[in-house]
Structures are given as C-alpha cells and as structure tokens.
C-alpha cells in the first residue's frame, strides 16, 4: 500500500455523514496521509460501476447508501475487486432493526433534510438577535412575525422560542414617548402580534426586575398608573395596526409561542411545510 491512503466516499446523499465519520477515525492516526475522493448523490448501479472501474485495489470505500439494492450492488462489486468497505449506515440501520423489530424506510437524503432544518433554525436565531428590541426597524419587513408590546411582556423570550421553530421574528417595545417606526405600518398586519398583560401582574414583574438590577425604592417603571397608561397606548397602537392581540397574563412563554404558531398557519397555511 502507498504511504497515502485513498478513501472513497460513496453516498446516495451528500456524503457528509461519511466525511465526518472518517475525520473522527483518521484523527486517531496523525502520521497517516490520506486522499479523500467524494462521490455524492449516487442513484444508479451504472454510476457505481463507473466508480468501481476506476478504483485501485488498495483504496478504502466508506459508504452511506440508504437504498438497499444500491448498497448490495456496491458491496458485491467491492468484494469482487477485493476492496475494503466500511458500510457505516447499513451497520447502524441493521442493528436498530434487530433491536427494535422495526424496518427502516431506507430513504436517501434524510440527513440532508435535518441539516437544512438545523441551518434554517440558526439563521432564525441570528435574525432574532439582530432585530431584537427594535434595534433596526428594517428587519420588520424581512420578518415572518413581528411582536409588539410594552416592556416585560416576554417579547424577547417568545421571539427566541419561535426562532427555534424556524420563524424569523423581530420585536419592538412600545413606549408612549417614542415615535413608532414607519416600517411597522408597512408590514402585513397578519404578521404582527400585539402582546398584552394584566397591569397588576406586570407591575409585580417589573418590581422584581428592578430588584434584580439593584434599584431600590419607588419607580415609575412599575408604577401601576404608569403601566395602565402604557397598556392603553399599546391597545391604540394595536388598533391602528389592525393586528392580532394575545393576552399573555396566564400564559407560559411556550403557550404564547404555540398560540402564535397556530394563528400564523391559519393566516399562512402555504408556509407550514417550509417551517416544519
């Protein structure tokens, strides 16, 4: 065998699983030189034959082929050529079939689907951080959902939960003394959600918040009359926006997020598959 080991990744999907697997294995051999050849999206036996015809017999095949017929054909060709095969996907599938008594669906590309979903979630989380707390009103026009409400109505934590469900969410705190950004009125009203809460509960939440911040004594921030003024202002804003309003007084953050998602898919049913 040459000093450099040729590793051939053959997959009916991206081959990313096999690549990561081999990185883990070869990292244990720091003096080993390797050359990796990647053959993704293999769909036919003819494609396998073309690959096998070009391989040296001292290569190593690492395969992740979910299709049973293709996997059998590849293993058969490798056996005839006396080429070592690491069939990491079939090994795991077979063991799980034995363990559970269930049959695997053996469908190619499922890992790719999971990866896309993961990266969409990461994008949504980064979006939420970028446009949290009204930092940049331009984000409203790029959002799936815009949450608006007075301070301490759980806008940010609800935003983050929705982001983990692949929704791009921006939020804006409502303050009577602050001018509303024009972009807010350019958003589809069905994408805007107003959050309200019982004034007494909000006063208690804000009072606890000031304690954690080390602020002692009376504060306008949790004054009940001030809070009623803020909530009255918020309701006027919601009326102007003609948006959905959710009372979060008795809700957990998860319940609020679930209610928003249900409402969203009622308004945008065509986006259900994209977000799933």
From TrEMBL:
Its EC number is 2.7.11.32, 2.7.4.27. Keywords: Kinase, Nucleotide-binding, Serine/threonine-protein kinase, Transferase. InterPro entries: Kinase-pyrophosphorylase, PPDK_reg. It is an enzyme of class 2 (transferase). It holds the Pfam family Kinase-PPPase. It catalyses: N(tele)-phospho-L-histidyl/L-threonyl-[pyruvate, phosphate dikinase] + ADP = N(tele)-phospho-L-histidyl/O-phospho-L-threonyl-[pyruvate, phosphate dikinase] + AMP + H(+); N(tele)-phospho-L-histidyl/O-phospho-L-threonyl-[pyruvate, phosphate dikinase] + phosphate + H(+) = N(tele)-phospho-L-histidyl/L-threonyl-[pyruvate, phosphate dikinase] + diphosphate. ADP binds at residues 149-156. GO terms for molecular function: kinase activity. Transmembrane segments: none annotated. Bifunctional serine/threonine kinase and phosphorylase involved in the regulation of the pyruvate, phosphate dikinase (PPDK) by catalyzing its phosphorylation/dephosphorylation. Belongs to the pyruvate, phosphate/water dikinase regulatory protein family. PDRP subfamily. This is Putative pyruvate, phosphate dikinase regulatory protein. It comes from Anaerococcus murdochii.
């Amino acid at each position: 065998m040459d000093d450099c080991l040729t590793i051939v990744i053959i997959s009916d999907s991206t081959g990313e699983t096999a690549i990561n697997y081999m990185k883990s294995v070869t990292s244990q051999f720091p003096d080993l030189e390797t050359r990796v050849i990647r053959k993704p999206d293999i769909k036919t036996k003819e494609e396998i034959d073309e690959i096998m015809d070009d391989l040296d017999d001292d290569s190593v095949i690492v395969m992740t082929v979910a299709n049973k017929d293709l996997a059998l054909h590849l293993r058969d060709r490798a056996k005839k050529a006396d080429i070592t095969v690491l069939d990491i996907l079939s090994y795991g599938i077979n063991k799980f079939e034995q363990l559970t008594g269930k049959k695997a669906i053996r469908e190619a590309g499922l890992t790719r689907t999971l990866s896309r979903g993961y990266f969409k979630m990461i994008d949504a989380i980064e979006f939420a951080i970028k446009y949290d707390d009204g930092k940049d009103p331009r984000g409203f026009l790029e959002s799936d959902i815009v949450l608006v409400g007075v301070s301490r109505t759980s806008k940010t934590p609800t935003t983050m939960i929705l982001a983990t469900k692949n929704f791009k969410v921006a939020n804006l705190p409502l303050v009577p003394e602050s001018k509303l950004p024009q972009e807010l009125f350019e958003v589809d009203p069905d994408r805007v959600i107003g959050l309200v809460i019982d004034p007494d509960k909000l006063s208690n939440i804000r009072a606890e918040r000031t304690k954690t911040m080390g602020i002692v004594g009376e504060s306008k921030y949790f004054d009940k009359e001030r809070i009623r003024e803020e909530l009255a202002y918020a309701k006027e804003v919601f009326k102007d926006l003609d948006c959905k309003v959710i009372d979060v007084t008795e809700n957990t953050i998860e319940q609020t997020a679930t209610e928003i998602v249900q409402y969203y898919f009622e308004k945008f049913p065509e986006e259900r598959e994209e977000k799933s």
